[in-house]
Amino acid sequence: MSGLKASRVSGYLWRWWQVCTLPWVAVLLRVVLGGVFVFAGFSKLLLPHAEVVAHMQQYQVLPGWLVSVTATFLPWIEVGSGTALLVGFCTTLAALLIAVQLLIFSALMGIVLAAGIPIEDCGCFGNLGLPETPLQVLIRDLIMLVLLLPVIYRQRDALGLDAWSSAPASYEA
Amino acid sequence: MAKKSKARAQTLSPRQQSPQKPLTSRRWRLKLVIGGAVLAVALGVGGLVRFLQQRDLAPHLQGTGDKHYTQGTAGAAVVIKEFSDYT
Amino acid sequence: MQRFEGQVQLVLYPFALNPTSEVATQAAWCAGEQGKFWEFHHMLYRRQELWSRLTAPLERLIDFAKDVNLDTATLRSCVESGRMQDRMQADKAYGQQLQVSSTPTMFINGYRIVGTQSEGELVRLIRQELNRVRPQGQ
Questions:
Q1: Alpha helices in B1-87 (DSSP H)
Q2: Crossing angle for the helix pair A91-115 and A134-153, nearest 10 degrees?
Q3: B51 close to A (CB below 8 A)
Q4: Is residue B11, in this structure, part of any structural domain at all?
Q5: Domain spans of chain A?
Q6: pLDDT-wise least confident of A98-102, B45-49, C95-99
Q7: Measured between CB atoms, does A153 come within 8 Å of chain B?
Q8: Which of chain C's residues have a Cβ under 8 Å away from the Cβ of A57?
Q9: Could you say which residues from 58 to 77 on chain B have a Cβ atom under 8 Å away from some Cβ of chain A?
Q10: What is the pLDDT of residues C83-137, one digit of tens each?
Q11: According to the model, what pLDDT value does residue C79 have?
């Protein structure tokens, strides 16, 4: 019985993988995930630096000096990695960088939830997005992490710079 | 044999005779240029946004000090403007 | 403020983020017309838990106003007249111009600080700014 369930689950997973690794689906995922990070980065850059610091301070997890450093560099990393993923430039590297960010954010939300720290708005999208609770952010980030897999697998797809530059070899004078 | 080689050489097209550059190598370099430019534009826009925001702050901070309740010395070296909510 | 007498000035901009706070802000301005702004201001924070969750806090605030010797009838008519709305909206607009979106936000000269800071941290920042605007020995 449990063997039947396991094979059903693996069947669904396999079907999901087949769909997500269709070229056009992988491109769509790449564009959406890249776009989300570009949006997140810009929304933080639109805020005064002190506001971003204040958003991060509410987590009460990072030491003071690290909050300031993170608030300074995170928006740029988000914009850079998001843009690279969006245009399919160094896709694997961009996707891995985004995956690392998502893992860190997820871990942070996990700590906040475990410690019971009350946070009404994560500040993930500055003043441009809807307020999100840590649980909502955790779920969203884990989903995005999973959706990165087909993007990395299909990184040489059409409509990306990587794909264009790795066309079959031919010669020119 | 030499005659055959010479003949073969003579039948090679100019295209095959000249130095060959792989298209992928040129495209790869172009990819780096285009990708780098896109990144530079994105980061540049971000920098511009931050710069404009900071530039606009100073003149706005100089205004509307009157008709507000104050503590401390008027004309002090350090002026703290506090925006606070009662709830 | 006493620690930095003669060196620092605080300018307060009540920045109401919700309707309850708007009533309190207008009441504070009205208390100021009776020369009791700071007393009312401090009382609002001291008794915050007793009024800040009410959707219509005016009656509670009028009650508290007696403890700071305010003319409650004058206070009530001032708030209900809406005279302080323009002043309150002007402060809100000014705050929005400076991209204030959460409170407390302070500007120590041009340096923005968001969120509640410890006294030690505030003192450090004020000293830092004083050292910057007035070189050593002056």
A1: 2-11, 14-17, 23-61
A2: 160
A3: no
A4: no
A5: 19-157
A6: C95-99
A7: no
A8: 115
A9: none
A10: 999 999 988 889 988 889 889 999 998 889 998 888 888 999 999 999 888 765 4
A11: 94
Is B62 an interface residue toward C (CB < 8 Å)? Answer: no
Q: Say if strands B78-84 and C8-14 run parallel, antiparallel, or are unpaired.
A: parallel
Can you name the residues that pair with C76 across neighbouring β-strands?
none
pTM over 0.90: no
- b/e for C42-70, b at 16 or more Cβ within 10 A? ebbeeeeeebbeeeebbebbbebbeeeeb
Q: Is it the case that residue A1 has pLDDT exceeding 80?
A: no
Residue B45 domain boundaries: 23-61
* Residue of chain A whose Cα is closest to the Cα of C121: A64
- Asked if residue B74 is part of any domain, the answer here is no
% of chain B exceeding 70 in pLDDT:
62
The DSSP line for C16-44 is --SHHHHHHHHHHHHHHHTT-HHHHHHHH
3-state class of C89 per DSSP? Answer: helix
Buried b (16+ CB within 10 A) or exposed e, B38-58: bbeebbeebeeebeeeeeebe
Strand-pairing partners, residue C111, are C108
- Domains of chain C, by residue range, sit at 19-97
